[in-house]
Each structure stands twice: as C-alpha cells, then as structure tokens.
Amino acid sequence: MDEETEYRIRRVQAGEIQDYVYIVQKYQKQIFMYCWRLLSSKQEAEDAVQDVLVKAYEKINLYKPEVNFTSWVYKIAYYHCINIIRRKKMHQKWKFSLLSQDQSMNSPAEMLEQRLFNEPLSRALEKLNVAERNLLVLRVFEEKSFAEIGEILNKSPEAVKKKFARTKIKIQKMMNSTEEERCQNYNILLKTKI
Amino acid sequence: MSKLQHPSQNENLKQMDLMHGEAFQDIDVTDKVMARVNNLAAEKRIKGSNTRMRQKFIIPGLTAMFILGISVTGYAASQYIEFLNNKGEVVLNTAAAQEPTDFVTHYTDRLALYTNQIKGQLQPGDYAAYFVKDKFINEADTLNPVKFEYKWIKYTDFKSFQAEISRTKAPVLGSLSHLPQGYQFDYGYVYPADLFSRHLANAEYLKIAENLKRQAESSSDGQKVFMQKLKWDKADFSSVRYVQGKNAITVMATRLLPDSKVTIFQGKEAQSEKLSIQGHEVYYIKSDTRDVETDPAAYHRIGWRDNQQHVLYEISNNADSNLRKEDLVKIAEEMLNYVK
C-alpha cells in the first residue's frame, strides 16, 4: 500500500472524514468493474460500488494495516455482491412461481449493451457458481495474485491456486461444449434451409 | 510484469473481456458516497455526543443484567424510564428511536453536501451562518432559513482545553482521577451556543437571513452556498475523550434550557435502567450489540440531568471496548462529586 493511502486511512480513522474522498476516488473504478463483472449488471454495479464504499467507511476503524487495504475493500465488495446475487436468486424463484414471464427482463439491445464478455465466455460464466466466477474474475480480469485472492477469501494461496486450476479446466470444457453446440445448431440451420 | 501463472491461457480468456476503459471512465460516485458518509458521521455525532440536538439523544441498549458498586442502587430494568423534577414534571425520559423516513434521509444527505462545502472554507474555530440556494432544502425547513456550521478546534493539551472552557463559559469537564487503567486524555472541544434565540422572531437573525438571501438572488454563476462568518464567545457544549489504544471513553456536557424536556432515544431492543449514584438518579443504557459494524453506538451509557446547573452529562464507551459498567459508574461517581 502506498504511503499516501496509508496516511489517508489513518486520517479517516482519526475522524477526518474529508480524507475519505481520496479513498473513494482511488477505488471506485476498480470496485465498480469488479462488481459489474460479478453482478453482470451495470446498474446494479453502480449502486453496489456506492454501498461498498460506504460500508468500507463504516468499518474503517476495524481495518488494520497488517492486511492489504485493497484486498480488504475487495472482500467487502465480494460479500456485498454475494448477498445481492442470493437475494436476486430468491427473488427470481419467487417470481417464477407467480409469473410465467418476467416482465422486467431487459430488452435484447439492453442485454447486448450490458454484456461484459464475448458470447462463449458469457455463457460459460453463467454456468459457474458465484465462488468460481469470483475466482476467475479476480485472477484473470482483476489480475490479483493468489496471495491477494487468499486475503479476500480468507483462504491460503495454495488452496486458491488449486481451486483456480480446477475452475479454469471447468470453464475451458464448458466453452468447448458451447462451441460444439453452436456448430451443431448451425448445421441444423443449414439443413433446414436446404 | 503479469502475476498470472499461465499467461497464455489466462490472456486467451482476458481477450474475451468486452469491458474496455471507456466503458467506466465516467463512473464517479464521490458525491453520492460522501453525502452518505457525512450523513453517517452526523448520525454518529448525534448518537455519540449530542452536539447540537439539545433535546434528542439516540442510544441503543439492552436489559441491564447486574449492578456493582457500594454507592449504586439498582431498580428493575424497564424499556423506557422517566425522571421528574421537584414539581413532578417529566424533565428527562428515554424512548425508542424512530427510523428516519426517506424524506429525512434525502434531506440530510443533500444538506450534508453543502455543509461539507462550507467546512472546507472554514478554519478551526470559525462559526458561520449560511444560506443554500436550494428549493428542496428551504421548503423542507422553513423555520431555519439560515443554518449554522462550526469547525471545531481539537485541544490535545488538557490545560488548553480547560482554558477554552473558561474563556467560552462552556460546561465544566474537569480532570478525572478514576479512569480505568491505561486510559489517557486524547482531546477535548467545545461548541458555540446558539447566538440567536427564536430564530424567526429575532431581528439579528432575520437581518443575516435577508443579507444572505439577497446575495443568493443576485448571484447567477451557479453558486449554491452563501456564508457569513460570525463572532462568538460563549459555548454550551463540552466534550472530552480518553483513549487506550482503539478504545475510548467520551464524556460530554450540554447546557440545557431550564424548562426543556430532554428525550434520550434508544434502540428498539434496548432497555434503560435507573441507577442511583451518590444519591443522584442517573440513566444507564446498555447496547444490545457490541458489533460496531451493525451498530456503531456506544455500549454502556450513563447520563444525568443536573437540575441546578441545567446541564446534561453523559459518559459512554465505544461499542467493542472491554470496559464494564462499573468502570463508567466510577467515573460518574467522581463527576457527581466535583459538580456538586
């Protein structure tokens, strides 16, 4: 952690709230991106980044410099996003039981605009559970080291490394099967046209 | 250098990322986050020190389980308690804190943006009146068209703090000799008394309001805040903080209007208890949680109203400290002796 950030954290902990502006400006973009990748929704990520930074402020007196501050903020973001995803799943189950069609679903254009990854990866990521998706996002897209991910997830770097290797194999298989499926569909389409 | 273990495989995946820098360049939540942060700090200030809310205190707590100390007598815990003056009138009571409505939250968030701006223009010790060119704020609070802000001076030297109390005739908070082991003076501060009583019926207040409004009306450059620094020499609030590492004890004293009734707000699950310390009735509220994440308010609180001096005193500790109720009772005993 750089000296400036360390200094600002100490100031905020001492009650100098205005110094928190520095923290917000330093972390908002990366946390926004991270939340967007986990939540797959730009709008939800915009709300989430605010909630995460407010939570970080509320907890800042609990922060101890032995831990990397960036990892500490990511940890808050991760648990915040997990809660949102769980709530969404429960909400979807409830809606599914009442409605045959989701009226609030985004239009195809909106979905396309909000898409973060190209199609094979998007489809494969949808099949991963949240923990696997998070691991992939942190390692591949956020370029975190295994030690940093370990800090975020409260796991050893070795355990993270093993889990990541398994997740990567899983996603590669999923992407391959997605490609095969697409080829088959394309063949059926061609045959129909003929 | 990349931290990735298998750059080629990971790079393949990364190339599928459609999120480019431009997509999030415009994200800036600083104002929104800081408005909420300022609001939280203000709430904490109200909960923790009652700086300007003379008649409202918010204190969570839980049923008190035991009482120790020779000079302390305990009564049965109940959810809310009342204290009467010698005429039998209620002058102090505890009550459930209400959740702020969306309107109130919106108002405080919005006002925080302006007060934040003003504080940036003040030096420690400056007290200012201000008017904001904002229809929502002004329609929401028609009784206080002009508001006030003070940037307090933090005295880290006890003698200087005492000198400031004397200079400003603030409520006295003397030195304490029965602090729990390891606790030392951290800082103290005072807060100016209102310069104008009954705002809308006060000629001076109305003059300032008129002047600031005129400036706002004639301004066309988008300026929202119009401020006038004020001279002040009297304080009606003192607070002192003692610390041991991350733990803190806060003692505060607020001068009250003689005929005012004070309500101490507490969490819905909390229960308050009446104690007798040195023959003086005090309230004791214990928070229902030590979890500073869910409830940053104090864990133990002891407070009382001095009906002769018309001052409300309160002693509290941070939610996750290991101090016991008896530690705060000892401080209250000492204070009740020196303020007698």
Short description:
With 194 residues, chain A is mostly helical.
Polypeptide structure, described:
With 194 residues, chain A is mostly helical. Chain A folds into two domains: 1-106, Rna Polymerase Sigma Factor, Chain: A, CATH 1.10.1740; 119-194, Arc Repressor Mutant, subunit A (Orthogonal Bundle). Chain A has helices at residues 3-13, 20-39, 42-59, 69-98, 108-114, 119-127, 130-141, 146-153, 157-193. In chain A, helix 3 (42-59) crosses helix 4 (69-98), helix 4 (69-98) crosses helix 8 and helix 6 packs across helix 9. The radius of gyration of chain A is 20 Å and the shape is globular. The relative contact order of chain A is 0.09. The termini of chain B are far apart. Chain B is globular. Chain B has 340 residues and is α+β, with helices and mostly antiparallel strands. In chain B, 29% of the residues lie in helices and 27% in strands. The model of chain B is unreliable at 1-7, 47-77 and 292-296 (pLDDT under 50). Chain B has helices at residues 7-14, 21-24, 30-49, 102-121, 135-140, 158-168, 203-218, 325-338; strands at 56-58, 72-74, 82-84, 90-96, 127-132, 147-150, 184-192, 225-230, 235-244, 247-255, 262-266, 272-277, 280-286, 300-306, 311-317. The longest helix of chain B has 20 residues, at 30-49. Classes of the chains: A mainly alpha (194), B alpha+beta (340). The A-B interface holds A 17-18, 20-21, 24-25, 28-29, 32-33, 36-37, 46, 49-50, 53-54, 57-59, 61-62, 115-118, 120-121, 136, 139-141, 143-146, 161, 168, 171-172 and B 2-6, 9-10, 13-14, 16-19, 24, 27-30, 32-34, 36-38, 40-41, 116, 119-120, 246, 292-293, 296.
Beta fraction of chain A: under 5%
The topology string of helices and strands of chain A comes to: HHHHHHHHH
Summarize the biggest pleated sheet of chain A: none
Specify the structural class of chain A: mainly alpha
Largest sheet of chain B: 8 strands, antiparallel
The CATH H-level homologous superfamily of the largest domain in chain A: RNA polymerase sigma factor, region 2, helix turn helix motif
